[in-house]
Specification:
By secondary structure, this protein is α+β, with helices and mostly antiparallel strands. The chain contains three helices and eleven strands; from the N terminus they run ααββββββαβββββ. Helices cover about 20% and strands about 30% of the residues. A hairpin with a 2-residue loop joins strand 9 and strand 10.
């Protein structure tokens, strides 16, 4: 069996071994540096995470929060505006019936029996202060002597209407008399009024106008 034979170059063997030792040392040094760098990176991040102290909670700043919608009106605790503190005006009182003046006027002094007759009633206030009047309470009636033979309150139902009257002012209500007799509650047969002279009057509660003459023929 042949033994192992080392082939040498032109240089001594000690030179070859020295070069190989230098190369091997350089390779080992590079490996160690790489290992240490990896450990430093891994250890630094874990150390930073482990050494970090928990942060305290802080209220968000106004710039970091969403803007809230504005609310119309005074904020809580704010002083009310002069308009809110101003006392409301008292309601206008109702006119006293003893302070009311009524005047009734028919479109004709004479009319055919059974025909319609337009009638106007003026309601004026003699009070020194403003007051209100329910114009739907005004009534027109025809009377033969002491007997009331016709009244707008018997069969007609007026729509509610309240007006405000200043001192000395008036308001007008319009009616149409149909020339037929009527009874309270619109009961009984409505017959044509016979020809003759009648008294035309206007009422509002206890207030009453002076009579105006109306002749049916």
């Amino acid at each position: 069996m042949h033994g192992f034979k080392l082939v040498k170059g032109s240089e001594p063997a000690s030179v070859y071994w020295r070069r190989r030792a230098i190369v091997a040392g350089a390779v080992i040094g590079l490996v160690l540096v790489a290992v240490l760098a990896l450990k430093a990176i891994g250890g630094g991040s874990s150390s930073a995470q482990g050494d970090a102290e928990p942060q305290e909670w802080a209220a968000p700043s106004a710039s970091s929060t969403l803007q809230r919608p504005s609310v119309v009106g005074s904020p809580p605790g704010a002083s009310p505006s002069p308009e809110e503190t101003a006392p409301s005006e008292p309601p206008v009182p109702e006119c006293g019936e003893d302070e009311l003046m009524l005047q009734v006027v028919a479109a004709f002094e004479e009319a055919r029996s059974g025909s319609e007759v337009p009638v106007s009633v003026l309601v004026a206030s003699g009070d020194d202060e403003a007051c209100t009047v329910a114009m739907d309470r005004v009534e027109v009636e025809l009377a033969a002597g002491e007997d009331v033979v016709y009244s707008t309150a018997h069969c007609d139902q007026a729509e509610e209407r309240t007006v405000e009257l200043a001192a000395g002012e008036g308001e007008t209500a319009e009616f149409r008399l149909d020339g037929r007799a009527s009874e309270a509650g619109c009961s009984g047969e409505r017959r044509t009024l016979p020809a003759g002279d009648y008294d035309l009057r206007a009422r509002l509660g206890e207030a009453e106008s002076r009579p105006a003459g109306l002749r049916l023929n």
